Amino acid sequence: MKISSIFKSVAKSIAVLALVVGVGANALEEGKDYVLLERVIPNAEGTVIKAFSYDCPFCYKYDKAVTKPVMEKVSDMKFVPYHLATKGVFGKYGSEVLAVAIAKDNADGVSLLDDKSKFKKAKFALYKAYHDKKERWGADASKEANVDAFLNTALAAAGIDKADFEAALNTDEVKNILNSWGMDNNGDAYMIAKVQGVPAFVVDGKYLIKTSAIKGIDQMADMIKELHSMK
User: Which of UniProt's keywords are assigned here (predicted)?
Assistant: First the structure.
């Protein structure tokens, strides 16, 4: 065999090997498949953060068909929801009631993706009321009766009474959850959402997946795994 033929054969072998074992290592492209957040979210290593709003139709669609199946395929990662307080007439109150529900689930040892989750029940009650039933609760958060009606939609579904909710708002855990999300444009939830809107998924507190790059459940799970492997 000629020397040139040998080199060509070796080159082809290396190329094939790269396709088999090496493509996944650098398949994702920054700016096309993901973006780096302007600041790293603290204590988020090993997490998949989902920024969302109760009044976001695509957030609802993702939570119905995508979020849980994807997280089941990356079971070593922790799902962490971030509600966006700055979106929706009742965004602030949505964050408060969902933070309380999360604290209740944490105390009960219930996964936020489980059908028994108070967070999941409250979240889907708001989704269904707003998107399916077109409920707007008076569309004015300055009126106490409207706020109460909004809160009751979530609280009743989660089995949390109003007094318990109000007491929980003063606990350190709920305050910490709300502080981690942020209640204004300076918060991390807003920092995530302003890049491309919501829903938005962030891996390890720094890699935001471009929703335009998501093609399916398995592919999204693979993206999460690859981003998690990047250091």
Answer: Disulfide bond, Redox-active center, Signal
CA dist 35 and 29 (Å) reads 9
The total of structural domains in the chain comes to 1
* Cis previous bond, 42, omega within 30: no
CB–CB of 230/34 below 8 Å? no
Residue 51: closest CA among 178, 199, 176: 199
Beta strands 34-36 and 207-209, pairing class: antiparallel
* Predicted confidence (pLDDT) per residue in 138-169, tens digit: 999 999 999 999 999 999 999 999 999 999 99
**Greatest alpha-carbon span in the chain:** 87
Joined together, the tokens standing for residue 75 give 């079971």
For the domain that residue 86 is a member of, what is the CATH number? 3.40.30.10
> Which pLDDT tens digit goes with each residue over 37-55?
999 999 999 999 999 999 9
Q: Quick: pLDDT tens for 164-219.
A: 999 999 999 999 999 999 999 999 999 999 999 999 999 999 999 999 999 999 99
Please list, in sequence order, all residues whose beta carbon lies within 8 angstroms of the beta carbon of residue 68, skipping any fewer than 6 positions away: 113
Domain that holds residue 84: 3-229
